[in-house]
Amino acid sequence: MPRIVRCGLIQAGNVVGSNHSLSAIKKAMIDKHLKLIDQAARKKVKVLCLQELFYGPYFCAEQNTRWYELTERVPEGPTTRLMQKTAAKYHMVVVVPVYEEHMPGVYFNTAAVIDADGAYLGKYRKHHIPHCHPGFWEKFYFTPGNLGYTVFHTKYARVGVYICYDRHFPEGARILGLNGAEIVFNPSATVAGLSEYLWELEQPAHAVANGYFVGAINRVGIEKPWSIGEFYGKSYFCNPRGKIIAQASRDRDEVVVADLDLDMIVEVRKVWQFFRDRRPETYRALTAQTGQAAAAD
Known about the structure:
globular, alpha/beta, 14 strands, Nitrilase/N-carbamoyl-D-aminoacid amidohydrolase, 7 helices
């Protein structure tokens, strides 16, 4: 029997402006996503991923300690608990990106992974933290991830997570493949004029290099009062051959759905033996700071 899994991505615009209370912003976005999750369930989605920092705006457009109040513990926090109930209700695996408080003053950009019975399987913490371009001040908010590149064995597939800026780094994408990922989700928040020319290049390249499916998610709209640009959506799935097989619009809320034939992974890897032909003993320079390997020689 073919292993075909129906998967979904949710892209959405912010509901209320940043001048509202944090509780109002968070409630509005969670309520909106619950309706979109219900829509995904009616489409019979079995594995679903939400966008980066899904219950608020992309607040890294400014540096303001106010946004620290959006943090929650994972899995003890209310959003993870709510999504556990939601996942169990729909018998759906859900990847839930949240702003995590590890301890007072130590915060991570995190995604909780919840199995189809509502069980919390673990979390991924974003490794690569940008602090660049006006409006992407993430080091003000996030500590670099420290939990490795875990692959979560869900009811329907082996799932890996890579968050937004991570996608520019092929090393972690390769480790997820080596760890057995069949689908890698990349929840993002990225704007036109900055990364759009890379959006349909890098992640299909990861899919090809590692022989797995990728689900790439981006939010939509302009989030005022900031002027960092328009979030251009275009969330998509691509297969292990790098072909985009389903894609959303650039300007509206949407649930993207695709049936992923996981047997294609074996078919592709029988042809392209990238894992077999690796030469890790020659890659010492990858784990050295720039120039150190050359200096040592």
